[in-house]
Design goal:
Elements lengths: L1 E6 L5 H16 L3 E6 L5 H13 L4 E5 L4 H11 L4 E3 L15 H14 L5 E5 L5 H16 L6 E4 L4 H9 L9 E4 L2 H13 L9 E6 L12 E5 L1 H16 L11 E4 L6
Parallel strand pairs: 1-2, 1-3, 3-4, 5-6, 5-7, 7-8, 8-9
Antiparallel strand pairs: 9-10
Helix pairs in contact: 1-8, 2-3, 4-5, 6-7
The chain binds 1-methylethyl 1-thio-beta-D-galactopyranoside.
């Protein structure tokens, strides 16, 4: 029996680590895993990846692809009765899903910076195509608004370290915020590099908060303060939930945990 995983680009650390967890749990459950990687954001590449997996006669499908609600519904129709779980869709999308809510996670990061007394906070958003990025960004803005604050600046990147580096350069050398909220750890990594190159001290001059807590994040310099999504647990639970659907058993999904991990990039 086979599970298909349609995933966003595995050059990115979070989807790669989720895929790893899915592979481990699929094996433990006695399933083979086949992977199709979407080569671009958006529904066309997603549909191509899904069709590739359907051609391999999978028994169920996990979709770790960012899909706007209308697109998720379109794919869900294409799948008809095949058990499937969407992993990066809006909470109110009417499709079966297994997602880490940004509601709690993005709030934790923003409130941590506010509690440290920072007021001039820059936002480094993920790509416009991403549902998860939009959720995190909306929550940040909401938390700032609750404190009568506007963002110091709003930057955007494609999730890569390079994008984080380039975005940070636009604020250097002399338009620096007190703190930076980044939509993922890889962009935080690039931002740290840009700050270091300009002799800006982290966290003494600028605090940085990531999002994900990938396996590498504790090894950044300085070790990254970040919002931990339990990527292993996410992968594991998606498989357990999907397998229960395939085998027509009921399964009570425990809530996915998201927590703030305070390391050395915030003060
Ligand atoms: C999301 C990651 O948080 C982000 O860093 C990026 O890798 C993105 O995936 C790629 O799509 S996690 C996802 C399950 C919302």
């Amino acid at each position: 029996r086979t599970i298909g995983l349609a995933t966003s680009d595995l050059v990115l650390q979070a989807p790669a680590q989720i895929a790893s967890a899915i592979q481990h749990e699929a094996s433990a459950q006695g399933y083979q895993l086949v992977i199709a990687m979407a080569d671009a954001p958006g529904v066309d590449a997603a549909r191509a990846a899904v069709n590739e997996l359907l051609a391999q006669r999978v028994d169920g499908l996990l979709l770790n692809l960012s899909l706007h609600t209308a697109d998720a519904c379109e794919l869900s129709e294409l799948l008809a009765t095949l058990p499937a779980l969407f992993m990066d869709v809006a909470a109110d999308a009417p499709v079966a899903q297994c997602v880490c809510s940004a509601e709690w996670g993005a709030r934790l990061g923003a409130e941590h910076l506010l509690a440290l007394g920072h007021r001039r906070i820059a936002l480094l958003n993920g790509p416009a195509s991403s549902v998860a990025a939009k959720q995190r960004f909306d929550v940040w803005q909401q938390v700032l608004a609750e404190h009568q604050l506007q963002p110091h600046s709003v930057l955007e990147g494609d999730w890569s370290a390079r994008a984080g580096y380039q975005a940070m350069l636009t604020l250097l050398p002399d338009n620096l915020p007190d703190a930076l909220l980044t939509a993922n750890d890889q962009m935080a990594l690039g931002a740290l590099r840009a700050l270091h190159q300009h002799g800006v001290r982290v966290p003494a001059d600028v605090s940085v908060v990531g999002y994900d807590d990938t396996a590498e994040s504790a090894w950044y310099q300085p070790p990254l303060t970040t919002v931990r999504q339990d990527l292993r647990q996410l992968g594991q639970q998606s498989v357990l939930q999907l397998v229960a659907n395939i085998e027509q058993r009921s399964w009570q999904a425990p809530p996915l945990t998201t927590e703030l991990v305070i390391r050395e990039t915030t003060a």
